[in-house]
Amino acid sequence: MKHLKKMTSASLALLVIATAAIAANNAPDSVVSLPVAQLKWQEVPGTQGAVGYANTEGDILSKGKGFYSAFVTFKAGTDNGLHLHSQALPTVVMAGTFYAVIDGKRTEYPAGSFYNLPARQVHESGCAAGEDCLLFQYQDNNFDLVPVKG
């Protein structure tokens, strides 16, 4: 349990540090307060329930209409296949173990980890088997996933 508390503290610290980099450009006009009971979870279309999200600011699926931040869930064992994103994708892993495969090398990101994929970085990613993943992600514009042929 002590280790879990340290990991949760580390996750929260990473979240604060990661969002500080963009906060100046996307500062809210008023307090943003979303206790967990107020999050509105939705299924990502076309994922058959394997991927869900809860926006915290903006809209992750806004089709290019500005900044968003969101919690994202992946069912354990979900693989996204080979793809890229048109802009950098900072991510904090809050639960589970997320992974990315870049140039054939798999890196696992357990809860408490942070990564920031550069724009147009071809990779495969997903949630390792065993435990569902909870991520926190944000971008200056909407999320996209562009499939790439291997």
TrEMBL record:
InterPro entries: Cupin_2 (IPR013096), RmlC-like_jellyroll (IPR014710), RmlC_Cupin_sf (IPR011051). Residues 1-23 form the signal peptide. Gene3D superfamilies: Jelly Rolls. Residues 71-133 form the Cupin type-2 domain. Keywords: Signal. This is Cupin domain-containing protein. It comes from Pseudomonas lutea.
